[in-house]
């Protein structure tokens, strides 16, 4: 991307982080809970810590750049939409870590493990409070839109976008778990999970919200926006799955090999199984779903994968889908601003080159 685009991205991140911190300051001060409750402010604190601890804010970037497809002027509603997007993401992180039994998120304890440490003698309370923390983040993501000072029609349209995005994400979580009961999921299964679980709330919804805030009509272009989001979502999920085996744990802020230990039939696991046979296949199958799988075993699987060309094939597949998405965005020039269209052309290629 151009230096100007990178400066805008950095500016969005800085501004939003300040906005998010101020939001949690207000939430902590004004939380509507009985005076005796200590668990409620603790829940808000944990959501704050998770929300403010890292994250690239690319959903916020997509939101602002989608508005720039229509105008380069000031657009009301982007702050509320950004808060809604990131609170929905926080909800997803809390529940993902509970479902996956993940101890670490963004270099710190997951909300679930924070509650487990807080209530070691009460595991059901820790589980319940984690579920409720995620639910609270979801409710707050809709509340910030309902309270936004926007025309009623725009506000309602934004709430509808986020409600659909949340519903699709829940379906994505369900089919994500279902996928792992399929012995050898085919590409349409893997792509469907990527679309529902992440693309619709991480890519499609921010674009729709940005267009709505700027006075655009995303419904007129629904089919191609969904196609673009799906392709970028597939690239992003492939990259996440790729990094789980081939990434740097120190850079990512979480250990590698988690998907293997959890028995996740991810893009990487599927590509690895398709590339091996005989004793190597037995070795991969034995590791897949073994929670006691050692770092040495994960390293051995990585070596097998590299020997069989799995990283190169995955990178080629990612680039293929990214190029399709980029070509789709190029067709937007007939209706939207050149500079912003160029940004959406570049985003898919950037997504596959990141290392965390």
TrEMBL record:
A Pfam family annotated for this UniProt entry: polyprenyl_synt
Enzyme class, first EC level, given as a word: transferase
PROSITE patterns in alphabetical order: POLYPRENYL_SYNTHASE_1
EC number: 2.5.1.-
Family note: Belongs to the FPP/GGPP synthase family.
Organism in which the protein naturally occurs: Kitasatospora paranensis
Protein name: Polyprenyl synthetase family protein
Transmembrane segments: none
Cofactor: Mg(2+)
Keywords attached to this entry: Isoprene biosynthesis, Magnesium, Metal-binding, Transferase
Molecular function GO labels: transferase activity
């Amino acid at each position: 991307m151009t230096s100007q685009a990178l400066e805008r991205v950095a500016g969005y991140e800085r501004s939003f982080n300040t906005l998010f911190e101020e939001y949690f300051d207000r939430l902590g001060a004004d939380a509507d809970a009985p005076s005796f409750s200590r668990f409620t402010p603790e829940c808000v604190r944990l959501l704050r810590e998770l929300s403010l601890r890292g994250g690239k804010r690319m959903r916020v970037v997509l939101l602002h750049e989608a508005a720039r497809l229509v105008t380069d002027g000031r657009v009301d509603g982007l702050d509320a939409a950004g808060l809604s997007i990131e609170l929905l993401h926080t909800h997803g992180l809390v529940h993902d870590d509970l479902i996956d039994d993940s101890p670490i998120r963004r270099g710190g304890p997951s909300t679930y493990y924070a509650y487990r440490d807080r209530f070691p003698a009460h595991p059901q309370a820790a589980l319940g409070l984690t579920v409720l923390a995620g639910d609270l983040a979801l409710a707050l993501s809709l509340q910030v839109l309902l309270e936004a000072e926007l025309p009623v029609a725009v506000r309602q349209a934004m709430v509808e976008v986020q409600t659909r995005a949340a519903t699709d994400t829940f379906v994505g979580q369900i089919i994500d778990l279902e996928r792992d009961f399929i012995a050898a999921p085919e590409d349409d299964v893997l792509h469907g999970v990527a679309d529902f679980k992440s693309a619709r709330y991480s890519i499609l919804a921010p674009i729709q919200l940005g267009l709505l805030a700027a006075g655009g009509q995303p419904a007129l272009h629904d089919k191609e926006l969904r196609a673009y989001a799906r392709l970028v979502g597939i690239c992003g999920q492939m990259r996440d799955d790729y990094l789980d085996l081939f990434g740097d744990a120190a850079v990512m802020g979480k250990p590698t090999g988690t998907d293997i230990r959890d028995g996740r039939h991810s893009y990487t696991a599927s590509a690895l199984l398709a590339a091996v046979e005989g004793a190597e296949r037995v070795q991969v199958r034995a590791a897949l779903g073994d929670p006691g799988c050692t770092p040495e075993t994960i390293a051995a699987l990585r070596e097998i994968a590299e020997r069989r060309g799995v990283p190169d094939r995955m990178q080629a597949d990612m680039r293929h889908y990214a190029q399709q998405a980029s070509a789709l965005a190029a067709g937007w020039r007939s209706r939207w601003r050149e500079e912003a269209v160029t940004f959406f052309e570049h985003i898919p290629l950037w997504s596959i080159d990141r290392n965390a």
